[in-house]
Write a structure and sequence with these properties.
By secondary structure, the chain is mostly helical. The protein has twelve helices and no strands. The protein is globular. 29% of the residues are buried. GO terms for molecular function: basic amino acid transmembrane transporter activity.
C-alpha cells in the first residue's frame, strides 16, 4: 500500500475544500437577491467580467486537456454565473418595471370617515406637525436632534454591535461547514480510491499548449479586474447593502485553498510556472476581497450595520 505523504494529503484536502467553496459561492448572493427582491447592491460589470474569466478558464482547461473534473467544474462556474446575471437583470429591469407600473396604477388611499368629517384646515395641521407656524419645523427638527443625540451614544453599542457580531459568527459557521464538507469529501474519495496522490516529478508533466497558457492569463486578469467595479460602486454609494458577506468569504476561502493545493503539491520552478496564471488569479483576488471586507466594516459603522447582510 502506498504511503500517503503529509503534503499530498494536505494538497488533496485543500483542493477538496476549494471545490466545495466554489460550488456554494454564488448561493448566498442568489438568496440575498431573492430575499430583497432586488440586485441593486451588486455590480453587473463585476459579474460580466467574472463570467469572461470563467469562460476563458473553461476554454483553457479543455485546450490543455485537464482532467474531466476540472472541466466539469469550469462548466458549472459558467452556468452559475449565468444564473446570477439573469437574476440581477430580472430584478434590475423586469421586476422594477412591474413594480413601478403597479405603483402608478394603484389608486390613492381613500380618506377615513374621521378624516372626512374634519375641517380642511385641521386636516392639514394634523398631516404635518405645526405646519404654517413660523419656525415650528426648525424647532421640531432641533427637538428630534436633541432626542436622537441623547439615544445615539448607547444604542449602537447595545443593539447594532451584537447584530453585527451575530452576522459575522453566522457566516463563520457557514465557512466551517464548507470546510467540513470539503474535508469529508476528500476522505471519502481517498478511501474509495477515487482520489490518488501523484508522486511523480512535477517537472515531468506534459507542457500545456501556449494558447491554453495565454487563456489562463486572460482568465487571471479578468478575475483581478472583476472586483474593481464592485469596489468602486461600494465607494461611490458608501454602502454594501444588498451584498452577501458570505459570498465574498467563500470566494476568499476558495481562492486561498486552491492556491494552497497547488503549492502544497510542489514548489518546483517549472511546476509553479505552469500554474502561475491560476495562482495569480486565485491569490491575487484575495487582496481585493479583503478590500471589500474593509468596506463592509467601514460602511456598516457609518450606516448602523445595515451593510452587513445576513
Amino acid at each position: 500500500m502506498t504511503v500517503l505523504e503529509a503534503h499530498e494529503a494536505l494538497s488533496g484536502i485543500t483542493g477538496s475544500i476549494s471545490l466545495a467553496a466554489w460550488v456554494f459561492v454564488l448561493v448566498p448572493q442568489l438568496w440575498e437577491n431573492y430575499n430583497l427582491s432586488s440586485a441593486e447592491g451588486i455590480s453587473l460589470t463585476f459579474l460580466f467580467v467574472w463570467l469572461v474569466g470563467d469562460l476563458t478558464n473553461l476554454i483553457g482547461s479543455i485546450w490543455a486537456q485537464l482532467v474531466p473534473t476540472v472541466v466539469a467544474i469550469a462548466i458549472y462556474f459558467c452556468f452559475a454565473d449565468t444564473i446570477l446575471i439573469a437574476q440581477c437583470v430580472y430584478y434590475g429591469y423586469v421586476y422594477k418595471r412591474k413594480d413601478q407600473k403597479a405603483s402608478v396604477d394603484e389608486p390613492p388611499p381613500a380618506a377615513t370617515s374621521d378624516e372626512a368629517q374634519q375641517p380642511l384646515l385641521r386636516r392639514r395641521t394634523n398631516s404635518n406637525d405645526n405646519i404654517g407656524l413660523p419656525g415650528s419645523r426648525r424647532r421640531s427638527s432641533a427637538a428630534h436632534s436633541r432626542y436622537d443625540g441623547m439615544l445615539s451614544p448607547g444604542l449602537p453599542t447595545i443593539i447594532e454591535e451584537p447584530r453585527e457580531l451575530k452576522v459575522w459568527l453566522t457566516n463563520a459557521s457557514g465557512i466551517l461547514a464548507v470546510c467540513a464538507v470539503g474535508g469529508l469529501g476528500w476522505l471519502a474519495a481517498w478511501k474509495s480510491g477515487l482520489w490518488q496522490p501523484s508522486y511523480g516529478d512535477a517537472t515531468e508533466e506534459a507542457p500545456r499548449a501556449i494558447g491554453a497558457g495565454i487563456l489562463g492569463y486572460v482568465s487571471a486578469v479578468s478575475y483581478l479586474g472583476a472586483r474593481i467595479p464592485q469596489i468602486m460602486k461600494n465607494y461611490r454609494e458608501k454602502s454594501c447593502e444588498g451584498l452577501s458577506l458570505l459570498f465574498f468569504m467563500l470566494s476568499v476561502l476558495g481562492n486561498l485553498t486552491y492556491g494552497a493545493s497547488i503549492l502544497l503539491h510542489s514548489v518546483e520552478e517549472q511546476y509553479i510556472l505552469k500554474n502561475l496564471p491560476w495562482l495569480i488569479g486565485s491569490l491575487g483576488t484575495i487582496v481585493e476581497d479583503v478590500t471589500i471586507f474593509v468596506q463592509f466594516r467601514l460602511y456598516s459603522k457609518q450606516k448602523g450595520s445595515s451593510a452587513l447582510v445576513d
